[in-house]
Amino acid sequence: MSKKEVDFILFNAKIYTVDDSFSVAEAFAVKDGKFVAVGSNRSVLSKYEAKQQYDAALKAVYPGFNDGHCHFSGYGENRLRYVELYGSRSFDEVLERLEIHQRTNSSDWILGRGWDQNLWETKEFPDNKQFDSLFPNKKVFLIRIDGHAALVSNATLDEVGISGKTEIEGGDILLDAFGNPTGILIDNAYDKVKESIPEMTDNEQIKALQLAQESCFKVGLTTVTDAGLSLKRIQLIDSAQQAGILKMRINAMINPDDETTTHFFTLGPIEKQRLTVRTLKLYADGALGSRGAKLIEPYSDDETTTGLMLFDKTFYNDLCKRAYDANYQVAMHAIGDAANRFTLNLYASFLKEKNDRRWRIEHAQIINPDDFSLFGMYSIIPSIQSTHATSDMTWAADRLGAERLKTAYAQRLLLEQNGWLINGTDFPIEDINPLFTFYAAVERKNQDDVIEGFQTENALTRKEALRSITVWPAKGSFEENRKGTIEVGKDADFVVLTHDIMTVEASKIKQTEVMSLYILGEKVYQQNQ
User: Fold this and answer.
1) CB burial class (10 A; 0-12, 13-18, 19+) of residue 145?
2) CA 20 to 30 Å from 285, out of 2, 245, 373, 489?
3) What is the chain's pLDDT, residue by residue, as a tens digit (529 residues)?
4) Which of 153, 154, 192, 190 has the alpha carbon at shortest distance from 173?
5) Domain extents for the chain?
């Protein structure tokens, strides 16, 4: 009997299909970008032949990794034109990095991202007093690691007209003892600054997207959910994908501005080969690290505040109704227990009962014990980031106190509500590597392993963790019938790793690297090439 000609055969592998029974195969065949056979070496090689064959030498193969919540476009922009401040151990180090950058850059704006005062000996917000002498007349804009606060220079404040008397709904302008701005702007208070920064050209935006793609491929990502984009940015991504310049598959959540929502709500959900658009991204509150997360009771380390809700109820209600009517999913950023309670009840008013709308809460970080059941009651999907738990674990108790901490980052409790959840990195806030997400989910440790596992009762099993970065994010964007598992008829997205993360010693998970990566049957990354 003659063999069927296909485009590609992989064999002699340990293939985790991540199908319903979590079966393991040895080989598969690919034609026209889809898996056409999955099984034993004998069953595949006896029926199919291909000019392109890959002997995997018993290496482990998985569905392509899917980041369920990140900022792909923003990450690329950061790489292109922002000073990297991640991991800086003091404000002096932040200033040193900026000075080094300025020696070879002379633009009017100094842009940076990634500082985190919780890593410093003095865990207080910095101020802008040194900017006038170090960077006279420069417009400085330094985004905190969480993307919910920024430190800006006086020249920047003057540029956007912010003074000690300015009031901004859903934002906070920190003042010194004399009533003058310190330079710290929280949440909506720095939106005016972001709007003033010169936009990148189309060519610069394409370059930024390619830089982001390059980083994603190196860590095994074949799909990302970009959490909040404008109409123009989505159109640029679409054109780059259609031209073959951008091969990354993107689930693009839309921003809530009128131009973007009117365009996409009129069109309805969009599902192309590499682009999906069917989700509205909203923000309920800020972040815990900058005390912008909205809590029911005051912060344990600052009893003068409970955080911020960013908009009024009418804003959210109107947008949710429009999304519901357009058959769009809603994804709300909610960190604090008050913000999560608000979002759960808001969603319930539209969803009424169990359903398949798959409305999501992004982060779902701090939940009041009385509110967990609402996730299951209204089929609301938690979209978590396991590395947030292990990044925050050294200081979260300061913000929340011991009692509230018990139901913060409670990822197993969240999983139990619907039987599945979405995992992501939220890069560039966390490291882009999904294997670090996997490690944090199962071990509840950070990359340094300095502290014993954090609240290990909320760890996921390795099977659950793998599903949370493959098929469950695909389900989160209504694409589980196309991707997320290695099964006949599915798109041929897969990754070959140096170690088997399902069986290797836990400490070696974070040392695992990508050997090769394929999207729709096409090799997009090869180690050491």
Assistant:
1) buried
2) 373
3) 789 999 999 999 999 999 999 999 999 999 999 999 999 999 999 999 999 999 999 999 999 999 999 999 999 999 999 999 988 999 999 999 999 988 888 788 999 999 999 989 888 999 999 998 999 999 999 999 988 899 999 999 999 999 999 999 889 999 999 999 999 999 899 888 888 999 899 999 999 999 999 999 999 999 999 999 999 999 999 999 999 999 999 999 999 999 999 999 999 999 999 999 999 999 999 999 999 999 999 999 999 999 999 999 999 999 999 999 999 999 999 999 999 999 999 999 999 999 999 999 999 999 999 999 999 999 999 999 999 999 999 999 999 999 999 999 999 999 999 999 999 999 999 999 999 999 999 999 987 776 678 999 999 999 999 999 999 999 999 999 999 999 999 999 999 999 999 999 999 999 999 999 999 999 999 998 6
4) 190
5) 74-196
The tokens for 365 are: 């970080």
- Whether omega before 428 lies within 30 degrees of 0, making that bond cis, reads yes
pTM for this predicted structure: 0.93
Q: Which two tokens stand for residue 325?
A: 């009517």
Burial 226-263 (b: 16+ CB within 10 A, else e): bbbbebebbebbbebbeeeebbbbbbbbbbbeeebbee
What is the 3-state composition of the chain as percent helix, strand, coil, each rounded to the nearest 5?
Answer: 35, 25, 40
Beta strands in 389-489, from DSSP E residues, in sequence order: 422-423
Residue 363 CB: number of other CB atoms within 10 A?
A: 26
Q: How many CB atoms lie within 10 A of CB 412?
A: 16
Instruction: Determine the CATH number of domain 74-196.
Output: 3.10.310.70
